[in-house]
Predict the structure.
Amino acid sequence: MIIANYEVIRQFSQKHARAKTSLATWYEFTLRAKWKKFDDVKKDFRSADIYKKCVIFNIGGNNYRLIANINYRAEIVYILTVMTHAEYDKEKWKGNC
């Protein structure tokens, strides 16, 4: 997969150093993925969920969330945001989906 908007990960990792390794693992794994539909994502990331057009990834043992749009045909993952679990619970991200 092509990962667009990596800058979101970089910026979040600067503010939340504990997330850096987990986000790097997600990034490397996702680069090698060949997802054609959400079920493929779910096979690789069992805790992944879907909300409207967004895919939600649990990162770092459920401490963080990465929200992305995936264009399966073009094989592009567009990162919308990365946030702490507390920020995720406020549900402000839902407006982007």
